[in-house]
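Q&A log
Question type: sequence-to-structure
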Amino acid sequence: MLIDALRAELVELDAAALRRRRCSLDTPCGPRPVVDGMPLLAFCSNDYLGLANEASLAAALAEGARLWGAGSGASALTSGHCAVVDTLERALASFCGAERALLFGTGYMANLGLLPAFAGRGDEIFADRLNHASLVDGALLSRAALTRYPHCDVGALEAALERSSAKRKLIVSDAVFSMDGDLAPLPALLELAERHDAWLIVDDAHGFGVLGPHGRGSLAHFGLSSWRLIYMGTLGKAAGVAGAFVAGNSEVIEWLMQKARTYIFTTAPPPALAHALLHSLELIAGGAARRTRLASLIGALRRSLALRDWQLLPSTTPIQPILIGDNEDALDASQRLRREGIWVPAIRPPTVPPGSARLRISLSAAHTDDDVLRLASVLNGLQK
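Response status: OK
Response body:
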């Protein structure tokens, strides 16, 4: 029977240490949540600037609900598009140095709509092998040929582009890789896009708000600008709220609005979120002290860790992964940390390649120096 086969496959997940289980937070997002009734010191959130529980941002969200109600009522192209979203899209475009921006409900929906809008049968997508699942799924939905090049291997990408006879080419990459914390070689990718007349789609979920002058993101970090750059940023990580946007050339965004099925055929995000996100943009732009503090915590953690059996991967971002390898060993390390009152998730396949299970440490400007030193001390002690 079908249900028996399903039960057997769940048992297989358990045997491979691959079944995922949710934790329930009894408190708002922050470094010291109460999880399933237990107070913990958490290093697992993407709230990099500590804005998710910022009082003024929560007040802006409440004000937005009073002004605009709880929901949008329809898709954006029906009757769900509100003036406050217009204001937000203009602010996002200006902030990122783009001509225009389009708001989506989530980053996953943005990528699922974006790639099929710009590629189809007869086209080819060139994607970094460690791209986020939403980019992989968007590429598959497009029905274009998909070539996945080795992680950050510009030479392999160049060779693949030279072999291609596709009528349209898309280079697609995370800017900051979510499980490794390293940066894509975006200047080299743009140079290849220009040489081979390709679009370059950049998913900056983990760079927006953190990198670049005033937190303007990875493109600003590298000083890049081109009409062929299509930029996706998320608004539920460093921005502290929810949603995502795509920014770029005016005609690019107009085409996306006409063709992205995840924009056309879904209810628009609540306008209250847009009201809150306008305040979030102000906090990000004026958040130099938060970003300086975050950089200081990253440096302190890397200096304090002395790992013998595990490998701290190279990263200058708030994502600080510790490579362990075996699934059960990674789970065991996470559970031992939990017993010490510290919450660091174990990341296993398919989120990461087989044999590369790891602890994924995420730092926030809301952490203290003592928080980071405590984490380092416990991690160092686990290997004694």
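Response note: The chain has two domains: 20-49+288-382, 56-285.
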